[in-house]
Amino acid sequence: MQPPAGSQVSRVPAQRTPPDQSAPPAPLPVPPRRPRRLRTVLTVVGGVLALLCVGAGVTGYVLYERAATPDRSAPDVVVDNYLREFLVNENDTRAELLVCEGNPDGLAELRTLRDDLRDRERRFATTLTVSWGALLIKREGESAQVETDLILSAAVDGISQTDRQRWRFQTRLKDHWRVCEATKRI
Fold this sequence. Notes:
With 186 residues, this protein is α+β, with helices and mostly antiparallel strands. The protein is built from five helices and five strands, in the order αααααβββββ. The chain has helices at 8-11, 37-68, 75-88, 92-96, 108-124; strands at residues 129-132, 136-140, 143-156, 159-173, 177-185. Strands 1, 2, 3, 4 and 5 form a five-stranded antiparallel β-sheet that branches. The termini are far apart.
């Protein structure tokens, strides 16, 4: 409300307190503290889940590599794995992982045997099974000869037939053992 006109009060200059003597401003009310416990728990849980995911990924990769990489640790092991992949499973892709590079003719005789077995299966409407006996190793430095008997079995018209063939496999050690040659022994 304004003072009446002509009153003494309106003519008195306003007096102000010097700035260095003024009262400090009233403090603002402190906002209520948000619980940080939930944020901490979520951060810890997220970190643990991230570590578990990374650990599971690394473990999965290692297990996959072990399962996908064929065992080429010894001459007899590589020959056994090669015979299984090439003659039993007929998986040329996996068999290629077990052979020497740049030596396609060294295994031509074994390829001929497999083609002959397939032809006989069609011709006689039967299934031929291939197995092998003990693998005998003659190692000489970074190469080894492995000999075994291939056992070819079939049942034709209810009659079981078996043929044994002696085979020699030449293997070489480069970074792993690999099969380089296969020849039928007489």
